[in-house]
Structures are given as structure tokens and as C-alpha cells.
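Good morning C.,

I know you're traveling, so I'll keep this short. The sequence:
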Amino acid sequence: TRMESLIQNLLKLAKLDAGSIELEKDRHNLREFLEQAIKSFQDRAHREGKTIVLQCAELITMDFDAKWLFEAVSNIIKNALDHTTAENRIEIRGEETPLLIQITIKDNGTGIHAEDIHHIFQRFYRSRFSQDQQGVGIGLALSKAIIEQHGGSITVESELGQGSAFCLLFPKLTDP
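The C-alpha cells, ready to paste straight into the viewer:
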């Protein structure tokens, strides 16, 4: 199963790189979209004694390909779960300004070592400090490629032992 997942993710990255992915963007309610993403991880979070909370206004809408953006957001939520322990909390926030829509996925887990922070979006990058023995270093690279395909960007802030915050920024384009 892990091998099949890795192969599928590599194929997705290759297609994104080749420009052969045609995004099917539609207008979606951001809160409903984020609720669906969280729902897919609720059982795991409950089993592991972790909490996932959402803060997002009801009326924020955005144009995106739900299947692909779900993949990107899910990879980041999965990483947050992988790098937190029981009693930890993952906060997902959707915000809108006149210029952009921002999705923030923040945890209070182990954080990212300063040596790694500039490399975590590189393919196959594995920190020598990581406790995660399952990952192969492809999820964040895939998320970044998908977000960029949507015209967005992703940044991360982290402090070792304090957690990490991934910020997904999508500009709101105005019609002339």
C-alpha cells in the first residue's frame, strides 16, 4: 500500500511538472471544503488523542480544483498529525482579505529543526532529526506543486518543540 501510494504521488508530481494537469476550477465554499478535509482525519485524531479545530468564516468562497487542493491540504494535515503527540492540537484557519485568501494549518507539535526549514519542500528530503520513519519526503513537495499550480504560494514558520504553521496564500485576482 505504501509503495502504491508513493508511485501514485510520483506520477502526480511528474504530471504537474510536465504541465499535463488541467485544473478543473469551480467556486467552492472554503469552510465546507476545509470541514471535508478535517473530516477525513477525525477518526485518526480521535484515536491518537489529538484535536483538530477549524476557524473559518461561512461566506468565504474561492475558485479551485477541489480534488487537487484536497490532496495538498490533506498532505499538510497528515504531516501535522504525524508530528504531534496525544493532547496536541491542530488549528486550521481560513481567512480572507481584500487581496488574498489564506489557509493556515498550525500545530503545537515537535516543530521543524532550523537546519531543515529551508529544505522541507524539496522532493525526497528527509531530516536527520525526524522521528517519522514512514515518510519518503514527497508529500510537502506535492502540496507545494499543487498550490503553485493554483497560483498560490506556501510558507512555513516553525520553532523546535513549539510546533509549525504552514501558510497557504492564494491571491484574489480582480477583473479589469
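Safe travels,
E.
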